[in-house]
Write a structure and sequence with these properties.
The protein has helices at residues 23-27, 52-55, 70-74, 92-106, and strands spanning 19-21, 38-41, 44-47, 67-68, 110-115. The chain has 124 residues and is α/β, with parallel strands linked by helices.
């Protein structure tokens, strides 16, 4: 049986990288400042550049480009104010949805590193 959320076609992923991104550094990978587009989920940074039609500027999920939008993914929200890493106050159901998104990304996109949490953003 295939893992939950497995891609229809097998994906060859590169070994995970261990770079640490500050939130400011991650913002540069929004598809505007750079051709690369990175999205972080639960603090893990994924390279979604080959899905520019989904995550690129003005596209359906562009709100998550260049940031950790864990809260928005878990809440199934495309609102800019929800595209933040904070999961505080989310319901069990929303946290399960977030875990599902993490599984989805993990099976499709290369891991580029993780987001460093500052003391002011360490509210997960």
């Amino acid at each position: 049986m295939a893992p939950r959320f497995a891609p229809k076609e097998p994906v060859q992923l590169a070994p995970p990288q261990d770079r640490v991104f500050t939130p400011e550094e991650l913002r540069k990978y929004d598809g505007v400042e750079s051709d690369k587009i990175y999205v972080a989920v639960k603090g893990v940074v994924f390279d979604v550049s080959h899905k520019r039609d989904v995550y690129g500027p003005q596209k359906s999920y562009s709100v998550f480009a260049g940031k950790d939008g864990s809260r928005g993914l878990g809440k199934s929200s495309l609102k800019l104010e929800d595209a933040v890493p904070f999961t505080e106050g989310m319901t069990e159901s929303e946290l399960t949805v977030l875990d599902d998104w993490f599984s989805y990304f993990s099976q499709r996109y290369n891991v580029m590193g993780r987001v460093a949490l500052s003391t002011s953003s360490n509210r997960m």
